[in-house]
Structures are given as C-alpha cells and as structure tokens.
C-alpha cells in the first residue's frame, strides 16, 4: 500500500514537471545572441533621450555618440531649408535689380561733368576696401559651393573636377577668412565717424535717395544707403567671422550642438550678406554714373559730389576756406 502511494506521488510530480516545461516559452535565437535586444527600441530611445552614447576605448570620447537626434534637424536645414533661403534671397535680389535697371536705368549725372575732380577716398581707404571686397567675393563663391555645388555644379563638371574644385575652394575659404576679418575691423575703424545715423538720413530716405525719381537729397560724406551697407558689412562680417571660426576650430568653445547652431547662423547671415552686396555692387557699377570712380581712381567729379553729397562738399570747402587741412583735396 505504501509503495502504491509512492507511485501515485511520483506520477503526479512527473506530470506537474512536464506541464511546467510546456508552459515556459522556448528561448529564441535572437535572445540567445543578444538577451537585451527586445528591450531596445530605437523610436523609444529617440523620443526619450537627447542622444545615444556608448563607451569607446580611443582617447576621443566624442566618437562614442552613436545617434544625436538634433543632427537630423540640422541636416534637414542644411539640405533643404538653407537652399530655399539662399535661393530666394540671392535670386530674388538679382530679379529686383534687373527689373529696377530695366525700368529706371542708370542714375545719370544730370548737371553734366564739370571737368574738375575732388578726392573722395584716399589710397589707403581704397586698398582696404578692395582687399576686403576681393576676399568677400572668393569667400562667397566658395561658401555657396558648399550649399549649392553638389546639386548644381556637380552634374555639369563631373565628380573629379568637382572634387578638385571643392578642395581648393575649401582652402581659399579658410585662409582668406583672416584678411577678410582684418579688413572688416579696419573698415569699422576708419569710417565709423562718418557712418553714425542722423536726421539728414531720415530726410534722405523719405526722398528716395536720388534713386527713385530725379530728386537729389543732401547728404554728408556717406548717405543713408551707404551707412546701411556699412553696418551690414560690420555686423554681418562680425557674425560670419565669429561663427566661422567656431566651425574652423571645433570643440574648443562648444560641443556638437553649439557647432550646429554656429553653422546655422553662419550660413543664413552669409547668404543674406551676399544678397545685400549684390545691391551694393549694382549701385557702384551700372546703377549710378560716376559712382565707381570713387573707389576706382579715388576722385569724383565735383558736380557728382554736389548732386549726391552736397553737405560733404560744403564741409570740404569750408575746411579749405578756413585754411585747415581738408580730409580730401580738390584737384583739377
């Protein structure tokens, strides 16, 4: 009887063990390879964490960052948004200038040339202007290549030529940034006195600055339009220089997020800077008769000076009459 009861207990225990084994899930191949795979969900991590970062054995611990979700927004800005901003700003400005030129034409010297000239800019002033301008043009072209080169230039010249061009453009962009920055600083120092806004500028703007219509409002050495260009150069040049050096010397003052913001600021200010300089180039060349001579030879016709900067001419004449050395000297 005791042996029979023992047999019953063993039988019940065997069936219970068998049922327990059947109820337990069999381990999958994925679990055998990586037991934590089921606990890692990419979308959940992207939503809940700022970044996915692990451990690395090399000295540069930043390489341990596997995913930085903010980088997706930056890439979208660089590849899509920036191209729209740059295209609208630059092409829009070109379209406005073409339409304005076709409707208004060149602003002519209405009183004709007197045959007498007055010194407008010294040799040093012109040297600083042209060095800074030349650096800006190269920086603008090489910078636009980063944004628009791949979709526009690459299909036209091919991979090898585009690679060679982009490499030299990168070198030019880096090394010419230094003389450009120095030029902006010198421009700020030598022309700051004449570029402080005043009440005359308000009247100049109200009367269209001589660009709209045939009115010639009085102005000192720099009118309101030139003062606007001056401050665009100073503020815009400072912004692109500071943000550019943050990118040129990475991780010294900020992390990857700070560098992304620096690139956003650098690129937006740069394309708006280019658009503004297109207007400046237009006025200084085909937009106004006699304007290029100011930075070309350094002298302008006296009648041109009286039409566009009458208050400045009066100042120079008063200096000459008082016997003090004028900042600019008249020349036959």
UniProtKB/TrEMBL annotation:
Stretches assigned to coiled coil = none
- Name the cofactor(s): heme
GO annotation, cellular component aspect: formate dehydrogenase complex; plasma membrane
**Keywords for this protein:** Cell membrane, Electron transport, Heme, Iron, Membrane, Metal-binding, Transmembrane, Transmembrane helix, Transport
TM stretches of this protein: 84-107, 127-148, 168-192, 228-252, 264-283
What is the annotated localization of this protein? Cell membrane
Asked whether the UniProt record includes Iron among its keywords, one would answer yes
Q: Which GO terms describe its molecular function?
A: electron transfer activity; formate dehydrogenase (NAD+) activity; formate dehydrogenase (quinone) activity; metal ion binding
InterPro entries cross-referenced by the UniProt entry:
Cyt_b561_bac/Ni-Hgenase (IPR011577), Di-haem_cyt_TM (IPR016174), FDH_cytochrome_b556_subunit (IPR051817), Formate_DH_gsu (IPR006471)
Which GO terms fall under biological process for this protein? anaerobic respiration; formate oxidation; respiratory electron transport chain
Q: Where is the Cytochrome b561 bacterial/Ni-hydrogenase domain?
A: 120-297
Query: Which Pfam family is an annotated match for this chain, by its short name?
Result: Ni_hydr_CYTB
- Assign the protein's first listed, main location to one coarse class: membrane
Look up and give the membrane topology term: Multi-pass membrane protein
Q: Which family does it belong to?
A: Belongs to the formate dehydrogenase gamma subunit family.
- Stated name of the protein: Formate dehydrogenase subunit gamma
Q: What is the protein's species of origin?
A: Bradyrhizobium australiense
């Amino acid at each position: 009887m005791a042996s029979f009861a023992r047999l019953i207990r063993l039988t019940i225990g065997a069936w219970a063990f068998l049922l327990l084994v059947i109820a337990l899930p069999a381990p999958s191949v994925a679990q055998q390879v990586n037991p934590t795979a089921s606990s890692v969900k990419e979308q959940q991590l992207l939503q809940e964490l700022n970044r996915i970062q692990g451990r690395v054995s090399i000295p540069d611990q930043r390489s341990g960052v596997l995913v930085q979700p903010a980088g997706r927004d930056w890439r979208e800005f660089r590849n899509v948004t920036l191209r729209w901003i740059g295209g609208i700003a630059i092409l829009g400005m070109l379209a406005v200038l073409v339409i304005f030129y076709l409707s208004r034409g060149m602003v002519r010297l209405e009183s004709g040339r007197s045959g007498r000239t007055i010194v407008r800019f010294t040799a040093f002033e012109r040297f600083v202007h042209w060095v800074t301008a030349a650096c800006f043009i190269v920086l603008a072209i090489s910078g636009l290549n980063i944004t628009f080169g791949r979709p526009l230039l690459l299909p036209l010249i091919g991979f090898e030529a585009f690679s060679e061009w982009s490499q030299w453009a990168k070198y030019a962009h880096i090394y010419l940034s230094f003389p450009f920055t120095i030029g902006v600083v010198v421009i700020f120092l030598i022309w700051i006195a004449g570029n402080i806004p005043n009440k005359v500028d308000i009247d100049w703007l109200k009367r269209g600055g001589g660009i709209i219509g045939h009115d010639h409002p009085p102005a000192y050495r720099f009118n309101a339009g030139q003062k606007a260009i001056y401050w665009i150069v100073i503020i815009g040049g400072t912004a692109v220089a500071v943000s550019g050096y943050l990118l040129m010397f990475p991780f010294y003052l900020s992390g990857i997020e700070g560098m992304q913001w620096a690139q956003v600021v650098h690129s937006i200010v740069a394309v708006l800077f280019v658009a503004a300089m297109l207007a400046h180039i237009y006025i200084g060349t085909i937009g106004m008769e006699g304007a290029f001579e100011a930075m070309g030879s350094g002298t302008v016709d006296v009648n041109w000076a009286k039409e566009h900067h009458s208050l400045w001419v009066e100042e120079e004449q008063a200096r000459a009459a008082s016997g003090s050395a004028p900042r600019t000297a008249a020349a036959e």
